[in-house]
From TrEMBL:
Compartmental location: Cytoplasm; Nucleus
Single GO biological process annotation from the record: protein export from nucleus
Keyword Protein biosynthesis appears in the UniProt entry: no
Transferase keyword on record: no
Organism whose genome encodes this protein: Aegilops tauschii subsp. strangulata
Protein name per the record: Exportin-4
PANTHER family from the UniProt entry: EXPORTIN 4,7-RELATED, EXPORTIN-4
GO MF terms, alphabetically ordered: nuclear export signal receptor activity
Family membership: Belongs to the exportin family.
Keywords assigned: Cytoplasm, Nucleus, Protein transport, Transport
GO CC terms: cytoplasm; nuclear pore
Length: 185
């Protein structure tokens, strides 16, 4: 599936809702898999999908804008864009679940275009997470880690190789700093 999304993202973007939903459902299932190879391939597929969406939007086109997913929210079912859905999912996996550090590079590659596409959602999710934190020391450490994730190493708003490498480094540092106290919750 990752090969399909890397080579033909524009064709996948125009699938009917049911077919597209099956693909994204498979990706979500794969991201939660215990097999590291499966997770890595799904991260590669999410990267391809999100990169396509980012480049299309940058060019003034719709990208994956017509594709939405239904998710369970705190207020019942909500519809959200594919990029919003995968941003939420990746942050959940990275912060609150047992994520393997050897997959950090692939996770960074998938997360970077999602952050570019969903900057407002990312800021809101970070803000909500910080507001829920009761311990002031943890809250300040977490705020600094999130700030450094997107600000360290002179990141730019591109998906070129040097920028991806900088973001991989930032994510590894971020995970090293927050994984100990976030996964306990």
């Amino acid at each position: 599936m990752s090969h399909l999304l890397e080579v033909y993202p524009e064709k996948v973007a125009h699938l009917n809702r049911d077919a597209f939903g099956r693909i994204t459902g498979s990706l979500e299932f794969g991201l939660r898999n215990q097999d590291g190879d499966v997770v890595e391939r799904c991260l590669t597929a999410v990267n391809a999908l999100a990169s396509y969406h980012f480049k299309e939007r940058l060019g003034g086109r719709g990208g994956l804008g017509s594709q939405v997913m239904e998710s369970e929210g705190s207020n019942g079912k909500l519809q959200e864009s594919i990029s919003s859905h995968f941003l939420r999912l990746l942050l959940q996996l990275l912060l609150f679940e047992d994520f393997r550090m050897e997959l950090a590079g692939s996770a960074a590659d998938a997360l970077l275009p999602l952050l570019f596409c969903e900057q407002e959602l990312y800021q809101r999710l970070v803000h909500e997470l910080l507001e829920k934190e009761q311990n002031p020391t943890v809250k300040s450490r977490l705020a600094l880690a999130f700030h450094n994730l997107t600000s360290s190493n002179n990141l730019s708003s591109t998906l070129d190789r040097p920028n991806r490498q900088k973001f991989r480094k930032n994510l590894r540092v971020f995970l090293g700093e927050v994984s100990g106290f976030m996964q306990i919750k």
